[in-house]
Amino acid sequence: MACRVLKAVYPLFHSEPAMPDQPQQQPPQHQDRQPGTEGDMTPHPRAEMEDYVGSGKLTDKVAIVTGGDSGIGRAVAIGFAKEGADVLIAYLDEHDDANQTCRLVRATGRRCEAIAGDLGDEAHARAVVTQAAAMFGKIDIVVSNAAEQHPQQSLADIDAAQLERTFRTNVFAMFYLIRAALPHLHEGARIITTTSVTAFRGSGHLVDYAATKGAIVAFTRSLAQQVAEKGILVNAVAPGPIWTPLIPSTFDAEHVAKFGSKEPLGRAGQPDEVAPCYIFLASADASYMTGQTLHPNGGEIVNG
Length: 304
What we know:
There is one protein chain. By secondary structure, the protein is of the alpha/beta class. The chain has a single domain, classed as 3-Layer(aba) Sandwich (Rossmann fold). It is built from nine helices and seven strands. Strands 3-2-1-4-5-6-7 form a seven-stranded parallel sheet, sandwiched between helices. The longest helix is centred in the middle third of the chain and has 22 residues, at 160-181. It is globular. It starts with a helix and ends in a 10-residue tail after the last strand. Residues 1-20 have low confidence and may be disordered.
């Protein structure tokens, strides 16, 4: 009887492929400058959370989202807004993308402000926090998401300037931002960092980048222990291959065309497939999680 029931039910689950609008591959393309822009990508990343329906999980919260101009940061900012939060996005200098993110956030009825500049500069990181508190009156959520990467085939090709630049953007900026934000955070506040699948499985052509992402995991776990008694929760998200402007601005056209194809799901992920992890960690649904990492990575099995 059980076998007959399963045979009858299985077609209901198998009638249509999941996410039928997802391309299996991207066409070859390259952008000459990091962190890249969404407008020059084909296809455009799905980062506008069009199908996401909020339920008030973050009503009247205030969030800072770095790298919020595009990609994962844009999807997170819009998702937070759909859940009721006001958002300040910090970005480097992609003004058109940042303005579009703000338009999309404001279209939900929530407030959005954008601040350009290099978060690797400690003074600017402090200014972002100061302006967020002044504009919105408080800070409830901090998402450290901005990053850069520079592939090299040999460790010998990673010079001191690249090493310092990658760590400054990916680690120092996170440290400066969160340290500046901590005095503003209260019981129930959330800190969410963006690490990477490369922190867990390594990457032979992104050695310094993977090292920064490993540092972020250790920072997240350590800070979670330090601030637990204050009721502040600290967690991370470790995306796999996600279709964002960082990809065509990092890799050559041939690599981009194959990006994500080796994952069990056979494709790169989209920003709006990652953003719900951040929404969950920012909400009361994650009230018993701290020092943890979520893994939206297309099916890679990792430890951690």
